[in-house]
Write a sequence for this structure.
């Protein structure tokens, strides 16, 4: 594009130059005609008659406007010399030619300057287009993970004297941090400090998060200290990243000190401490320090902080982690009284907590309440209920929740189907187990190795060892290969029923398929061999 524009500019300038030369030749001829003859020809008329190949409109106007002044001057000179036409002084003629040549050169200089201004305008346009295109390309390369190419393009821009803006550099820093290349990210930030653009708070936040993701909290804290030296004030995001990293590493005291500093600097503003305080409490709960979390909760209330749904969710989740469902329910009620509507995370947290302590009735009640409160259960809600019911032996109710899930146009993942199939198998109801498998297929969910293992286990439990082998053949026909659990079930069954040779054959097949036997496999064969020796 740039070459094309440059070529066009050269062509335009050459045409202007040729036009000027032709104009000078014509004007010289006009002078001699005026000297040798009394006939006066209109220069504009003659010029128009000869210039059939005109310049572009704007450039022709430029040429004509610059030339008009000379035409007027020449005509005025001849009008003043009208009375002397009979003398025909040669010196006068050469003086006129000298003046004409000087005026023509001045005119050419003016045209050249005008073309140069046009060229500068073109170059400015090209530069602007190239900058926008390069910046967009750097961003796209970062999103595609092509950081080397993005850095190469950035360096090329700098060599040409064009420095990308801070947003573009932030994309590069973010990409390098996500890729784990923190050395290049550090080099890039240092170059920004040297040649520009100056890093902003978002740059440092990205870099600090990169160190925290690699569990290098010390360097993240050093970078945090460097922000103040570089004249950049940390914001809430900076502090939240650091507090989360410190809590994750179990450094609750350091997190507490940092939080107190934030609250002190911001004079207790709600917007500055509610998010960081919630992150701190979550870290305390996950590290088992419930006392400190509750103390901080009380401090927040005393400061007049307006608790939101997220803060209550963290508190309820903390009580559920310690299986204190009484307090979890109490704060759930307090949350509702304060006019804060519980969301899907609140309900799922309570359902999970009640399932873990075996209180399935309360878990099912919460599941029913959430629908009445306008919060539709999601696949996670159903998954926790179904798993909990199957673990505690209530497969019938689990199947009812499965049907309800299907009616709500939610197709469960294979894990949920497998849990119910295994539950029916453990109850000895093989018919229902296969019915669920067929229902699973009808909804487009393909059985996996866990599905077939549950069915084989159910058949072996009922003593149907031959049916179990048939299920194994079906398994292979669908492209699902047996694993160590499949072979252990079949080998154990063969040994129990006295089919030792069948067990050895299964063991050999297991090795041929590259399935590594474990302790259960070896123990089953050893015990079977020992029983055989006793009978000898």
């Amino acid at each position: 594009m740039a070459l094309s524009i440059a070529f066009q500019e050269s062509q335009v300038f050459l045409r202007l130059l040729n036009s000027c030369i032709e104009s000078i030749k014509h004007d010289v001829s006009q002078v001699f005609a005026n000297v040798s003859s009394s006939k006066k020809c209109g220069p504009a008329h003659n010029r128009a008659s000869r210039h059939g190949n005109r310049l572009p409109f704007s450039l022709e106007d430029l040429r004509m406007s610059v030339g008009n002044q000379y035409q007027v001057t020449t005509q005025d000179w001849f009008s003043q010399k009208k009375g002397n036409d009979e003398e025909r002084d040669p010196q006068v003629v050469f003086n006129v030619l000298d003046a004409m040549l000087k005026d023509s050169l001045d005119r050419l200089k003016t045209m050249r300057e005008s073309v140069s201004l046009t060229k500068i305008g073109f170059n400015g346009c090209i530069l602007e287009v190239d900058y926008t295109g390069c910046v967009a390309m750097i961003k796209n390369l970062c999103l595609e993970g092509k950081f080397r190419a993005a850095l190469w393009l950035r360096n090329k821009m700098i060599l040409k004297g064009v420095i990308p803006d801070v947003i573009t550099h932030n994309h590069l820093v973010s990409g390098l941090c996500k890729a784990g290349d923190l050395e290049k990210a550090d080099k890039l930030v240092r170059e920004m400090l040297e040649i520009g653009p100056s890093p902003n708070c978002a740059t440092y936040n990205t870099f600090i998060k990169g160190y925290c993701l690699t569990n290098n909290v010390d360097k993240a804290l050093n970078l945090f200290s460097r922000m103040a030296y570089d004249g950049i004030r940390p914001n809430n995001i900076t502090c939240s990243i650091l507090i989360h990293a410190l809590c994750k590493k179990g450094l609750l005291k350091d997190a507490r000190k940092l939080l107190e500093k934030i609250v002190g600097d911001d004079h207790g503003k709600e917007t500055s401490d509610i998010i960081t305080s919630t992150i701190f409490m979550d870290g305390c709960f996950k590290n088992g320090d419930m006392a400190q979390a509750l103390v901080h909760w009380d401090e927040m209330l005393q400061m007049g902080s307006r608790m939101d749904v997220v803060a209550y969710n963290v508190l309820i989740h903390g009580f559920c982690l310690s299986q204190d469902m009484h307090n979890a329910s109490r704060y759930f009620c307090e949350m509702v009284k304060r006019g804060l509507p519980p969301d899907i995370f609140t309900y799922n947290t309570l359902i999970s907590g009640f399932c873990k302590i075996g209180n399935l009735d309360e878990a099912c009640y919460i599941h029913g309440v959430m629908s009445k409160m306008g919060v539709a259960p999601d696949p996670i809600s159903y998954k926790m209920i179904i798993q909990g019911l199957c673990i505690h032996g209530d497969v019938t109710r689990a199947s009812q929740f499965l049907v309800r899930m299907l009616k709500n146009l939610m197709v469960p993942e294979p894990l949920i189907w497998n849990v119910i199939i295994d539950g029916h198998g453990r109850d000895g109801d093989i018919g229902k187990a296969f019915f669920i498998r067929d229902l699973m297929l009808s909804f487009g969910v393909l059985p996996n190795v866990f599905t077939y293992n549950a069915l084989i286990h159910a058949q072996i439990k009922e003593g149907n060892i031959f049916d179990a082998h048939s299920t194994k053949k079906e398994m292979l026909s669908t492209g699902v290969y047996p694993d160590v659990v499949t072979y252990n079930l079949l080998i154990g069954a063969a040994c129990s029923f006295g089919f030792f040779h069948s067990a050895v054959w299964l063991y050999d097949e297991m090795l041929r398929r590259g399935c590594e036997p474990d302790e259960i496999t070896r123990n089953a064969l050893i015990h079977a061999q020992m029983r055989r020796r006793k009978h000898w």
User: Anything to note?
Assistant: The first helix runs from residue 2 to 36.
